[in-house]
User: Fold these one by one.
Assistant:
Number 1:
Amino acid sequence: MTPSTDIVPDSERRGFIGGLPPRLRPYASLMRLDRPIGTWLLYWPCAWSAALAGVDGRWSLFLWLALGAFAMRSAGCVYNDIVDKDLDRSVERTRLRPLASRRVSLGSAWALIALLCLVGLVVLLQLRLTAAIVALLSVAPVVLYPFMKRITWWPQAWLGLVFSWGALVGWPAVTGSLSWTPFLLWFGSIAWVVGYDTLYAIQDKEDDALVGVKSTARRLGDKAPLGIGIFYAIAVLLWGVALWSVRPDWIALLALGPAAIHLTNQSLRADPNDGDLALKLFRSNRTCGLLVFVAMLVVGLSAR
């Protein structure tokens, strides 16, 4: 098949990417600059952890963590497309991605990853040693993630390990050491990720079945909304225990109320056969992350 460089996704013809010079658009598309939701979802566990640790006057840390989340999410997207380039050609939703459509070479994609990793290195140098070491340990699960959907029905759980890793970074970035609290945040965030990424996977169920890709959405089938609700409940429970470990006060737990209501609404509205609704609910987790952040910040500052 001869690729056509004239056929590009609509996302490269409009919005932020559409305003870039044509030569840069495929690279922006590789980094998913038109879909910042991934950066937000990677950032929030970092921010929660630093906020619950009490910040300790290091407010600029939130900006550094945001830059790190942007760079690492972008690099992860490029790497994922490198691994999945052949698979993406078989899926309607992804066949026009820059590597799948051969509009970007493998060499250029690896060079982009290297550049983004340099940005990540700059962020690492701003962190305390323990936080920097923990952040570096995330490389192994990140490298393995794209292969999980070929191996297990629960690739969303592995994504949870990766996308929640920031919970183990934010706390030592403030305190200089680890404790049980960031691990509770991490485990809670993993459950949250399994829930919201099951929503995301609902839209791809048919294509995934055709190419043999596994997912929790396919595994759970019509019980997906129930599964999402259970994972969200586990997330809220573990976040509550993390709050309690910092401030053992029942009033502190009320701070999670808005986020709990938000997640309950998602699970009640989820429809395993409505991909458009599932995508909308998935994207609303950016708001959920903000609600949890406010809870962590209030309790973290009040416990100091």
Number 2:
Amino acid sequence: MPTKAELYIRSLVFWVFHALTVFLVVGVLLVFFWLPINQRYAIASSWAKMNINFLKMSCNLDYQIKGKENIPEEASLVLSNHQSTWETLAFQHFLPNQLWVLKKELLRVPVFGWGLALISPIAIDRSAGKKAVEQIIEQGRKKLEQGRWVIMFPEGTRIAPGVDSKYKMGGFIFASRINHPVIPVAHNAGEYWPKHSFIKHPGTITVSIGKPINADSMEPADIKKEVEGWIKQELKEISEPVG
């Protein structure tokens, strides 16, 4: 096992790479802002892919996938638990052209927010209540029809491993209003890259992808029950807490 000092040094190397490459990739993205969205996304996602590869090299942190055969060909809505920053990077490694539902304030963050804006996410005003859900439905339908995957974290924020959380209804209401597959995803990334943690722990994160759900004829509460139940049960099976 590496010492705490070794973990710190490895993590420091990763964070330096992480920061330098965001400036590089966003710079390229700003130069080529006029490209079609799919090409802008390819540029932006190269940053995530570089970081996931470098994470393995610098911190010896890798991942494995259960249920990769459950990924459909058509654009889908992914509903996942949220434990870490890791999943916002890694999902770009194994899921097609995608975007996230996020609070619009993130688009104002210098450099990083500019890059986010250029890949056309679903940016909502979270204080708008029910109107925010309508924003998700209106924008999300258009994105799915364009062939882009939509990623949502029903917990709304990162939740530490082992902590029970309440799933918000927005994603499930959206799922009931579309005729695209709904894919539940569970992962234990927070055990290796915890929320607000500088240090990244070595190991192998497990991502479990569930079978597609045809949710357009279901009530939002029933979708929530099925997806939340599957994710929480799956987390019990894949969880391997780091000491």
Number 3:
Amino acid sequence: MNIREQAELQEQQRLSPYATKSRESKGRAYPMEKCDIRTEFQKDRDRITHSKAFRRLMHKTQVFISPEGDHYRTRLTHTLEVAQISRTIARALNLNEDLTEAIALGHDLGHTPFGHTGEDALDNLVPGGFRHNIQSVRVVEKLENSGEGLNLTFEVRDGILNHRTECTPATLEGKVVQISDKIAYMNHDIDDAIRAKIITPEDIPSHITRSIGTTSVIRIDLLVRCMVEESQGKDTIALPPWVAQLLRELRSYLFENVYVNQLHQKERGKIQGMFKLLYEYYISNPEELPEDILARAKKKDKTRAVADYIAGMTDRFAMKRFEEFFMPAGWSH
């Protein structure tokens, strides 16, 4: 019995009866030789962290566009926070930590530069619309690894696809990531909004801070505890109804006071204009696309290939391309 097989046996003996066991995975789109050391979900986690799309998250906006400071979250730091919260909950509930971590690390791979502003811009431009969760699956199935994809297991792909609120993941591990994503982004968006002087701690509705805490550290700890207590020994993952209601109210507060902040809205307009110009430029000048993207555009849907390319850009690369195509070059002597 090799190390992987020992780990699979330990999962069967140790994990909750509601956990997803790696030996029982529904498998991959096409067969792949199993590793002697790593389980299938551990292998997926590694394939995600070694991908180019994962590395690019470092230079993609989370909420605030081109922040001046080193302590604002990026899409990568958000991803790592979601993974940390998810693993804590999965461990407490005896769920599959490796599956949970793989889903968390891959859930935002398809996010555009400039956060949800970029996503909204592409959604308005691309026939059929654009959703980052669907694009994340597209990244791992069709775009990474020179177009071959990462060939991840069904369970990881399902968790990535269904991490949005309106979706229903097929595994409890996927549900853990779905809720942990909200716990992470709401609390770190508050931190960043306070750092940006958009709001103050006192601005947050007092009935929310009295109930779930005045700081992000306190709130995250309480939310994790509540989630574990509410889900312990059950075949479902949930927060207590009173906590879920407060989170909905906190999310509404953030939308009204942070995400649609007047300064932020002004920058949103600029980003949307930039996306429109880049999208139209590449549609009209496909020869400017990289060779692999151009080949895909010729064989299949050009509009989707252009969307793939723009969605994969980092913030700074998108601005560099915009300046190259639409800003006058400087003169030299």
Number 4:
Amino acid sequence: MNTFTRILRLLTLGLCLAAGAAQAQGYPNRPVRIVVPFAAGGPADNYARFIAQRLGEEFKQSFVVENRPGAGSIIGTDVVAKSPADGYTLLMMSNTHTVNESLIPNKPYGLLKDFVGIAPVNYSALLLVTHPSVPVKSVGELIALAKSKPGKLNYASSGNGTPYHMAGELFKFMAGIDMTHVPYKGSSGARTDIVSGQVDVMFDAETTMAVMAREGKVRALASTGLTRSANLPDMPTVAESGVPRFEATIWLGLMAPKGTPTDVVNRLNAEVRKIVNHPEVKATWARQGAVPMSMTIAEFDRHLQTDIANWANIVKVSGAKPD
């Protein structure tokens, strides 16, 4: 390579870097859409709006949440996958997405192939609850009832592949029981029917179900973390209630279409981390039962890969299938 060619390549690289920096510096100059592929009222929707408001305040630009539920998150996720990779369409995802990589392999997109991770947001334990009419007051009693009536009890979820579905399948497998899965199009419908007694059992995020449990609308039997929730210290875990090592959580994060400018992704990562690490946010979320997650882009990518592999193993051993 002669000197002229080297200089030309260096100039070209410099121009590309300058263009990328300029793009990030001017971003965003119009409203940004955050697609939530779940129904309104659930954790993904609630925390997407929380993050959107604070990003809007920081960037002095609108971040608009758009709910596009359906097919266990696949419909809304595919909308983002097919959107321009310019930073103006983002995805609020959850571990539903890492589950679906193995549970529903024939999707129109691949999570790590068609998306780039921006940042995780938070995680929370789930609560195992029943309608008050179900004659049980502990996990042990629920297991005994389910064993006496194989397949007669049912459990609600917000759809195939969601943390609520997979918690139910994992519980069935580890407790050696059979319950019938009743998938809904969103967590709000499932929540309404567990409260009204249309379904017997549900795993739901602590951040949305704790209030209903306190009000007596449902009976909370246990939380699903490996340790007791700081928000509900008197609530036993499933693991200490007869199903050793049981753990199930819901976690949320932001992603963008593959090819989104690196500087834009880096800037969004920095701002999301600033939000979730703010002392006031930590305190607010702690009262709700949510724990902030703060990672670099590389750390988040490793987290996604690990979670996909872990859920693939659970799907395999539990025999979970989309209904």
